[in-house]
Amino acid sequence: MVALVTGGAGGIGGAIATALAGRGHRVAVADVDLVGLARKAEEFGGLAVEMDVRDPESVRTGVAKTIAELGPLDVLVHAAGVVGGAGPLLSLPVESMDAVLAVNVRGTFLITQAVGEAMVAARRGGSIVHISSAGSFQPTVGLGHYEATKAAMNALTRSAALELAPHGIRVNAVAPGPVETPLTAAAMADPAARAPWVERIPLGRLANTDDLVPTVLLLASLEARHITGTVLPIDGGQLLRG
Question: Does 239 fall in a domain?
Fold first, then answer.
């Protein structure tokens, strides 16, 4: 099976790409971070694909390269995303809003459209898994711009699931709470910064990538063949606290 992982040079995307390769998938790792991209692809012999999900031509070129070199796509895991800083809505620069819209909403639309078209043409079915956020269901002061884009991702997930179901293509998302990755490690090392996030989680700890990977692998596999249009929180119970 062939899988494409966007944001594959990052902590979440990289862990998912490695896990898919471990299950025998031929994996294309897509990212704008060329150094991290090359390093991750080299780890397991994957295909490095330069891709900017904001750019329609870059997305279509990357999808075409994946299919040309690895074969028809069976799985897309769309992990590319940005937070775009933080700040109250009343003082947030419009540039921050534009940045998250471009990657998290426009990017989700473009990659879903390009991969969906390729999967329909191949007539093999397939699975698309988006990486959303628990924040799409629960507001956090200072992150309203980011959370709005993840709510839009959820809506795109459900619409795509409905439209692609006749072609045997399933579209789902996972919605993690805060996740410890190399990118967040420095900030979360400060107990004062870490405590407010942990206090929101009934299970009492932040997630790590190992907490996300099994569910993504399940949704990507035929074991989840009757699951589509679902946005599944992986949040340690965070959403239970409203």
Answer: no
At 72, give phi and psi (nearest 5°): -60, 140
Residue 49 dihedral angles phi and psi, to the nearest 5°:
-125, 110
Query: SS3 of 104, please?
Result: helix
Cα(16)–Cα(74) distance, rounded to whole angstroms?
15
Q: What is the CATH number of the domain that holds 137?
A: 3.40.50.720
d(CA 142, CA 148): 12
Does residue 108 carry a pLDDT above 80?
A: yes
Q: Is residue 240 part of a domain?
A: no
Task: List the catalytic residues.
Answer: 146
pLDDT digits (tens, 9 = 90+) for 134-170: 999 999 999 999 999 999 999 999 999 999 999 999 9
Q: Do residues 176 and 237 lie in contact, with contact meaning Cβ atoms separated by under 8 Å?
A: no
Domain membership of residue 24 as a residue range: 2-233
27 domain residue, yes or no = yes
